[in-house]
């Protein structure tokens, strides 16, 4: 096995490790409220998340295309660039996961790729496609949490008004069942967005490795790795979706605890409103090829639902810690990846 092929396969493994850690972080978002309201057990929620994230991963490739071809200029992308971007994102994700903070794996990956590409280009900012960053990263990063907050506030307010004559027992029974459907919708939307980010990274790895001849003499059994043009193969989709589900099962409970219990005390109707709103926002963004943060959207949707009770129903001290993690995610992961790639270049690894 030649060194380029070995490195390409190693980068793919690192990408799947990133997806596993994404499962620790972001896949937990899709089942946080349905488990916090005790409609489902964590194991039942994880099973639903796994199934519908797999379905969502097959629903288009718009987000994968943005990640693979839209963020940075292709001529500066090497296997070392992709590796550095992934590791920078992984380091930040592990740090925030350990602290129980639902920071954005999406922004960690995007920041990491941008920082790594800058290092590969000698530190120049021109390697970044600023138009794409502005319209498909920065603007959605700001607007999607705001939309999540205000829409969930309005949805919850409408439900409280429309159902004020209902007995609490029936509200809990009906919305307990409905919340299972909203959790499935949330998982499907999550698969459409977050699973596609790693899918795009793996597809970019295969394309880069093909261009440098790493797959020129592959045995017949491995010919599926050879990718002369950008393409997200079915095996990539399945691998990413299953890896994310495994990550949820292994570590998602930390984030579930923060989102589902520490911020707002919820009943099934609150969980339904938050999940349905967040899933709708993520679904639309996925169709538009916007790699938004699932974490940001579900978090602010939960905040919006909590605010309908009373303003201080939301534990703003917890929210403050989460916001700090949000602010630092993009720049920190970019710096980590930049330094890593710069060190690799000093060591002669390009």
Structure, described:
It is a single chain. The protein is mostly helical and 350 residues long. The protein has one domain. It contains 13 helices and no strands. The chain has helices at 3-27, 29-36, 42-57, 62-70, 79-98, 105-120, 130-162, 168-211, 234-251, 253-262, 268-287, 294-307, 316-346. Helix 1 (3-27) crosses helix 9 (234-251), helix 4 crosses helix 8 (168-211) and helix 8 packs parallel to helix 11. The longest helix is centred in the middle third of the chain and has 44 residues, at 168-211. The radius of gyration is 20 Å and the shape is elongated. The mean pLDDT is 86.
Sheet with most strands:
none
- What coarse outline follows from CA principal-axis ratios? elongated
Radius of gyration: 20 Å
Q: Whole-Å distance between the termini? A: 19 Å
Relative helix content: over 70%
Order of helices and strands: HHHHHHHHHHHHH
DSSP helix count?
A: 13
Proportion of residues in β-strands: under 5%
Mean pLDDT: 86
Say what oligomer this is.
Answer: single chain
Number of domains: 1
Helical/strand content category? mainly alpha
Spans of at least 5 consecutive residues whose pLDDT stays below 50 are: none
> What's the count of strands?
0
